[in-house]
Specification:
CATH superfamily: Glutaredoxin
CATH class: Alpha Beta
Protein name: Thioredoxin
Number of domains: 1
Order of helices and strands: HHHHEHEHEEHHH
Radius of gyration: 16 Å
Strand order of the largest sheet: 2-1-3-4
Number of helices: 9
Number of strands: 4
Helix content: 40-55%
Shape: globular
CATH architecture: 3-Layer(aba) Sandwich
Distance between the termini: 27 Å
Pfam families: Thioredoxin_9
Organism: Neptunitalea chrysea
Length: 201
Protein backbone atom coordinates (compact mmCIF):
# COMPACT_ATOMS: atom_id res chain seq x y z
CA UNK A 1 0.00 0.00 0.00
CA UNK A 2 1.22 3.48 -0.87
CA UNK A 3 2.52 5.62 2.01
CA UNK A 4 -0.08 8.31 1.35
CA UNK A 5 -2.86 5.73 1.61
CA UNK A 6 -1.46 4.44 4.90
CA UNK A 7 -1.16 7.97 6.31
CA UNK A 8 -4.72 8.72 5.23
CA UNK A 9 -6.04 5.62 7.01
CA UNK A 10 -4.20 6.60 10.18
CA UNK A 11 -5.32 10.25 10.00
CA UNK A 12 -8.97 9.26 9.54
CA UNK A 13 -8.75 6.73 12.37
CA UNK A 14 -7.41 9.34 14.77
CA UNK A 15 -10.04 11.87 13.69
CA UNK A 16 -12.84 9.36 14.27
CA UNK A 17 -11.32 7.89 17.42
CA UNK A 18 -12.67 8.17 20.95
CA UNK A 19 -11.08 9.58 24.04
CA UNK A 20 -10.56 7.17 26.92
CA UNK A 21 -13.59 8.60 28.76
CA UNK A 22 -15.71 8.23 25.62
CA UNK A 23 -14.61 4.62 25.36
CA UNK A 24 -15.61 4.01 28.97
CA UNK A 25 -19.00 5.59 28.23
CA UNK A 26 -19.41 3.26 25.27
CA UNK A 27 -18.56 0.29 27.49
CA UNK A 28 -21.16 1.44 30.04
CA UNK A 29 -23.84 1.79 27.35
CA UNK A 30 -23.06 -1.62 25.89
CA UNK A 31 -23.29 -3.18 29.33
CA UNK A 32 -26.59 -1.44 30.05
CA UNK A 33 -27.96 -2.60 26.69
CA UNK A 34 -26.79 -6.19 27.24
CA UNK A 35 -24.55 -5.95 24.19
CA UNK A 36 -20.92 -5.84 23.10
CA UNK A 37 -18.94 -4.06 20.39
CA UNK A 38 -18.90 -7.26 18.33
CA UNK A 39 -20.92 -6.96 15.09
CA UNK A 40 -22.20 -10.49 15.76
CA UNK A 41 -24.55 -10.76 18.79
CA UNK A 42 -23.11 -13.13 21.38
CA UNK A 43 -23.97 -13.85 25.00
CA UNK A 44 -20.31 -14.66 25.63
CA UNK A 45 -19.11 -11.32 24.21
CA UNK A 46 -21.76 -9.50 26.23
CA UNK A 47 -20.61 -11.22 29.42
CA UNK A 48 -16.98 -10.36 28.67
CA UNK A 49 -17.96 -6.72 28.05
CA UNK A 50 -19.66 -6.54 31.46
CA UNK A 51 -16.68 -8.09 33.22
CA UNK A 52 -14.23 -5.88 31.36
CA UNK A 53 -16.08 -2.66 32.16
CA UNK A 54 -16.04 -3.47 35.88
CA UNK A 55 -12.39 -4.45 35.64
CA UNK A 56 -11.47 -1.17 33.95
CA UNK A 57 -13.30 0.90 36.57
CA UNK A 58 -11.38 -0.91 39.30
CA UNK A 59 -8.05 -0.44 37.56
CA UNK A 60 -8.75 3.25 36.99
CA UNK A 61 -8.75 3.62 40.78
CA UNK A 62 -5.89 1.28 41.68
CA UNK A 63 -3.21 1.71 39.00
CA UNK A 64 -0.43 4.16 39.88
CA UNK A 65 2.69 5.15 37.96
CA UNK A 66 5.81 4.96 40.13
CA UNK A 67 7.79 8.14 40.64
CA UNK A 68 10.89 6.77 38.90
CA UNK A 69 8.81 6.24 35.77
CA UNK A 70 6.89 9.50 36.02
CA UNK A 71 10.05 11.51 35.40
CA UNK A 72 10.84 9.58 32.20
CA UNK A 73 7.29 10.03 30.93
CA UNK A 74 6.91 13.68 31.92
CA UNK A 75 10.15 14.76 30.23
CA UNK A 76 9.22 13.12 26.90
CA UNK A 77 8.83 16.00 24.43
CA UNK A 78 7.74 14.44 21.13
CA UNK A 79 4.19 15.29 20.08
CA UNK A 80 2.61 11.95 19.24
CA UNK A 81 -0.73 10.18 19.28
CA UNK A 82 -1.15 6.79 20.88
CA UNK A 83 -3.87 5.12 18.84
CA UNK A 84 -5.38 2.05 20.48
CA UNK A 85 -7.20 -0.64 18.52
CA UNK A 86 -9.55 -2.52 20.81
CA UNK A 87 -12.95 -4.16 21.38
CA UNK A 88 -15.19 -4.23 24.45
CA UNK A 89 -14.97 -8.02 24.83
CA UNK A 90 -11.16 -8.22 24.85
CA UNK A 91 -9.84 -9.25 28.26
CA UNK A 92 -6.28 -8.16 27.53
CA UNK A 93 -7.52 -4.72 26.48
CA UNK A 94 -9.43 -4.30 29.72
CA UNK A 95 -6.23 -4.91 31.67
CA UNK A 96 -3.97 -2.82 29.44
CA UNK A 97 -5.94 0.29 28.45
CA UNK A 98 -6.35 1.70 31.99
CA UNK A 99 -2.58 1.46 32.43
CA UNK A 100 -1.96 3.13 29.07
CA UNK A 101 -4.31 5.94 30.08
CA UNK A 102 -2.49 6.45 33.39
CA UNK A 103 0.82 6.71 31.51
CA UNK A 104 -0.61 9.19 29.00
CA UNK A 105 -2.00 11.35 31.81
CA UNK A 106 1.55 11.94 33.06
CA UNK A 107 2.64 13.35 29.69
CA UNK A 108 1.78 16.73 28.17
CA UNK A 109 2.75 15.60 24.68
CA UNK A 110 0.74 12.42 24.07
CA UNK A 111 -2.81 12.34 22.72
CA UNK A 112 -4.67 9.10 23.40
CA UNK A 113 -7.36 7.92 20.97
CA UNK A 114 -9.19 4.60 20.70
CA UNK A 115 -10.96 2.87 17.81
CA UNK A 116 -12.80 -0.42 17.49
CA UNK A 117 -11.00 -3.09 15.51
CA UNK A 118 -13.93 -4.48 13.54
CA UNK A 119 -14.92 -1.00 12.36
CA UNK A 120 -11.34 -0.25 11.29
CA UNK A 121 -9.97 -3.37 9.63
CA UNK A 122 -7.98 -1.29 7.15
CA UNK A 123 -6.09 0.17 10.11
CA UNK A 124 -5.85 -3.18 11.90
CA UNK A 125 -4.32 -4.80 8.83
CA UNK A 126 -1.45 -2.31 8.93
CA UNK A 127 -0.22 -3.80 12.21
CA UNK A 128 -0.93 -7.53 12.30
CA UNK A 129 0.76 -9.73 14.90
CA UNK A 130 2.12 -12.89 13.28
CA UNK A 131 -0.50 -12.44 10.58
CA UNK A 132 -3.41 -12.13 13.03
CA UNK A 133 -5.66 -9.23 14.04
CA UNK A 134 -4.64 -9.45 17.69
CA UNK A 135 -5.71 -6.70 20.08
CA UNK A 136 -5.19 -4.46 21.86
CA UNK A 137 -2.62 -2.74 19.70
CA UNK A 138 -1.22 0.66 20.61
CA UNK A 139 0.26 2.56 17.66
CA UNK A 140 2.61 5.48 18.24
CA UNK A 141 1.85 7.98 15.49
CA UNK A 142 3.87 11.10 14.70
CA UNK A 143 2.52 14.45 13.50
CA UNK A 144 2.76 13.29 9.86
CA UNK A 145 0.63 10.22 10.60
CA UNK A 146 3.46 7.73 10.38
CA UNK A 147 3.53 4.74 12.73
CA UNK A 148 6.87 5.06 14.52
CA UNK A 149 6.41 2.37 17.18
CA UNK A 150 3.81 0.05 18.70
CA UNK A 151 2.87 -1.99 21.73
CA UNK A 152 0.70 -5.08 22.09
CA UNK A 153 -1.26 -7.18 22.04
CA UNK A 154 0.24 -8.13 25.43
CA UNK A 155 3.20 -7.16 27.59
CA UNK A 156 6.22 -9.34 26.93
CA UNK A 157 5.90 -11.31 30.18
CA UNK A 158 2.28 -12.25 29.39
CA UNK A 159 3.16 -12.98 25.78
CA UNK A 160 5.78 -15.48 26.93
CA UNK A 161 3.19 -17.24 29.12
CA UNK A 162 0.80 -17.46 26.15
CA UNK A 163 3.42 -18.74 23.73
CA UNK A 164 4.70 -21.36 26.18
CA UNK A 165 1.17 -22.64 26.84
CA UNK A 166 0.26 -22.69 23.15
CA UNK A 167 3.46 -24.55 22.30
CA UNK A 168 2.73 -27.19 24.94
CA UNK A 169 -1.03 -27.58 24.47
CA UNK A 170 -1.72 -26.30 20.97
CA UNK A 171 -4.31 -23.67 21.87
CA UNK A 172 -5.41 -21.43 24.71
CA UNK A 173 -8.04 -22.97 26.97
CA UNK A 174 -10.69 -21.15 29.06
CA UNK A 175 -8.78 -22.19 32.19
CA UNK A 176 -5.59 -20.62 30.86
CA UNK A 177 -7.39 -17.41 29.91
CA UNK A 178 -8.68 -17.19 33.46
CA UNK A 179 -5.17 -17.82 34.77
CA UNK A 180 -3.88 -15.02 32.53
CA UNK A 181 -6.39 -12.57 34.02
CA UNK A 182 -5.19 -13.57 37.50
CA UNK A 183 -1.62 -12.96 36.35
CA UNK A 184 -2.57 -9.45 35.24
CA UNK A 185 -4.21 -8.79 38.60
CA UNK A 186 -1.15 -9.94 40.51
CA UNK A 187 1.23 -7.98 38.27
CA UNK A 188 -0.70 -4.73 38.94
CA UNK A 189 0.28 -3.20 35.61
CA UNK A 190 4.01 -3.25 36.30
CA UNK A 191 4.93 -5.31 33.23
CA UNK A 192 2.72 -3.14 31.03
CA UNK A 193 4.35 0.08 32.27
CA UNK A 194 7.81 -1.43 31.84
CA UNK A 195 7.09 -2.28 28.21
CA UNK A 196 5.37 1.05 27.50
CA UNK A 197 8.51 2.87 28.65
CA UNK A 198 10.28 1.42 25.61
CA UNK A 199 8.11 3.76 23.53
CA UNK A 200 9.71 6.80 25.18
CA UNK A 201 12.82 7.00 23.04
Amino acid sequence: MHTLQVNSIIENSIAQGMSYQEYLSLMAKLMADGASSSPVPSEEMTLFTKLNYKRMLRLNKTINIDGKYREIISTYDKKVTWLAITESWCGDAAQILPVVNKVVEVSNHITFRLVLRDENLDLMDLCLTNGTRSIPKILVVDEDYNIIDSFGPRPEAALNLVEDFREQYGKLTPDFKQYLQLWYNKDRGKSIVKDLLKLFV
